[in-house]
Amino acid sequence: MAGKKKDIILQITINNQEQWEEVLSSKGLIVVDVYQAWCGPCKTTVSLFRKIKNELGDDLLQFAVAEVDSIDALEKYRGKCEPTFLFFAGGDLVAVVRGANAPLLQKTILEQLEAEKKVLNHGLDRKVIKDEALLEEEEESSPLPAQPEDDDLIPSGKSYTVAIIKPDAVAHGKADEIIMKIQEAGFEILANEEKTMSESEARGFYHHRAGEEKFQELVQFMSSGPCHVLIISRSGDEDVIPTWREFIGPTDVEVAKKEKPESLRAQYGTEVLYNAVHGSNDREQASRELAFFFPSFKLQQQNTEESASRTPERTLALIRPDVLRDRKDEVLQSIRDVGFSIAMQKEIMLTEQQIREFYKEHVDQEYFPALQQQMMSGPVLALALVKDDAVKHWRNLLGPADLTEALSNAPDSLRARFTPRESTINQLHGSSSPIEAENEINFFFPVEKTLAAIKPDAMEEHRDEIMERIQGAGFTISQIKETHLNQEMAEEFYKEHRGKPFFDELVKYMCRGPCLMMILSKENAVQEWRSLMGPTDPTEAHTSSPDSLRSLFAKSVLQNAVHGSSNEKHAMEKINFIFGDIELERANNETLLSDDAADDMKQSEDNSEHTAPEEHEAEPSQENS
């Protein structure tokens, strides 16, 4: 009862127009979760709101929930299935957040609360907005085609996903009913084609799941009868894929019936394989699936040159020791401010041999000894930056390599701003061409292998969804093995934790049922897999990494769904333990980091923002349990 009372106090319930007007007339900032009667309020954000409220203790901040069907002012929000949070101050709309995006919600709450205090305390003007997504919907009136023609186009910038109504749902006569529910939920169907896949086509479509035990059964099922293949979009969605996956529900039908009873899979599926509908896992997969089923369906483009100029590109950036030590955060913020995304980053102490290899074209130059001394004076931060024309934009941002020229002719450049006046070597590096960028990125972020495991609890409930997300994140599964650890094997597997309070419980849990062990390959695989997993504690994962595997599938610190090696050395040990004596391959032996450098890297990675999740995790910290 106490917990229920706390929830009521945390979020005011608005049931009618009169209450709506009364709440909005309150002083301060009101964050309203507007929801449809059939799906209810967004429960996943309650813990975040309680945390913010407890930490701030500010009477000017209120939370509320409002059912759109019973409030006239929310008429335009009816029929939307995506979680929507409206921010009101002084009765005016000041911000909108769509989706249960915890970091964005927290940031918006803090920013809008601070802005409202300035309005109340200093008489500043309140910045009132209109919900742009609703305005865009009102402007759209053109009918959508039912069947794709050779010249059918998806407007540039429009988010889409490929959906399949599977043979089981079609055979039971549910296709039209499902399509109607899709449209009622606000999704647009850009194409709808009935198709019977051959076994060869089904095998090609699901090739990324070829290592799974039930792969052949999946192929036979998907080629057993007609299915409907759809292209789905949704007005106002920057990325329709998370909304669609939320709408169809978990892969496991029993889990869907328990956790998302209103989802399509809960209503029309019967088991994991026969779960009625399919949805792309991410944009890359959606693009591949679009090309597979609709080769003539193209993204609208002004012209080939314009399209090429918008293609994201990667470049390498290095922050050298002096600036990294004193002004790292300022440089990183400057990078983000101009629109770069940081795809990968690694803090590393380079050896003399590595420096000579990386700068081999400069070894004979007069300035090389000073450069080498600078590079060996402390760790450097390597960044893989992503942006349209990244190489050109990053070099323009850096300014001239010569410091005197940079200070005289480009005083606003990064090299002029951040290189210490007493230094003779500039403190920032950028690739000179796209080809050099890829070579340099491969030097610092070679293709690695890491060990990943799906633990017993997640094997029972979420195996397929986790496998989909692994593939969607760009990992290659080079080997896969389902195994049931006995006590001796589990104790050896987690030997780093022997003697710790949780060791016996961890071993017992890992012996409870089968695990799925995998060797994953990717650039920077160890750190990328740890990032995809998220923090050990799922409570922390919900807040800091809401899209991580542990945020989505973990039950507790112990039953946290997945395992990953904490560094390359541990990855090799665990791979050899599970799969036998396997020599880890490298993408390019000439750019192989030495064992000493790898040890240095492990020590310095603890200071990196992007890596070393152990900083924020509860025990165990040596090996991510």
TrEMBL record:
Belongs to the NDK family. GO terms for molecular function: nucleoside diphosphate kinase activity. SUPFAM superfamilies: Nucleoside diphosphate kinase, NDK (SSF54919), Thioredoxin-like (SSF52833). The lineage of its organism: Eukaryota, Metazoa, Chordata, Craniata, Vertebrata. CDD domains: NDPk, NDPk_TX, TRX_NDPK. It comes from Engystomops pustulosus (Tungara frog). The active site is at 278 (pros-phosphohistidine intermediate), 429 (pros-phosphohistidine intermediate), 563 (pros-phosphohistidine intermediate). Residues 599-619 have a biased composition (Basic and acidic residues). ATP binds at residues 455, 502, 530, 536, 550, 560. This is Thioredoxin domain-containing protein. Transmembrane segments: none annotated. Residues 590-625 are annotated as: Disordered. Residues 1-115 form the Thioredoxin domain. InterPro entries: NDK-like_dom (IPR034907), NDK-like_dom_sf (IPR036850), Nucleoside_diP_kinase (IPR001564), Thioredoxin-like_sf (IPR036249), Thioredoxin_CS (IPR017937), Thioredoxin_domain (IPR013766), TXND_domain-containing (IPR051766). SMART domains: NDK (SM00562). One of its GO terms (biological process) is UTP biosynthetic process.
